[in-house]
Amino acid sequence: MAYEIPVTQARAELADLINRVVYGDERVVVTRHGKPLVALVSAADLAVLEAGESAAEEQVISSVSTVRGPSSAPGERRFGIAAEHRGPGPRA
Question: Is residue 82 part of a domain?
């Protein structure tokens, strides 16, 4: 569970909050009007969060790269789409 503190109080107690996070293994959530604004976490916690983020991104990338487009029916020809950009001016 994280310790919650209003932003106005956090400003006055920043050094103490940093010590609680680093040496007390606490997480501090700074709130504004009762809503979470930011969180103070140790550098070790941040490394764990970022490692999990990277692993999740790699899993999504590998999943997407293995998805193939819809397969064609036997004998069906596939056509590409071609377009030509014409600038403004009279059309012939």
Answer: no
Encoded tokens for 21: 């996070």
Cβ atoms 3, 29 nearer than 8 A: yes
| Half-sphere exposure (Cβ direction) of 57: Cα atoms closer than 13 Å | 6
Residue 40 burial class via C-beta count within 10 angstroms: exposed 0-12, middle 13-18, buried 19 and up: buried
Residue-range definition of the domain harbouring residue 32 = 3-64
Q: Is the pLDDT of residue 39 over 90?
A: yes
The CATH number of residue 9's host domain is 3.40.1620.10
Mean pLDDT of 25-36: 94
Q: What is the DSSP letter of 69?
A: P
Number of domains into which the chain is organized: 1
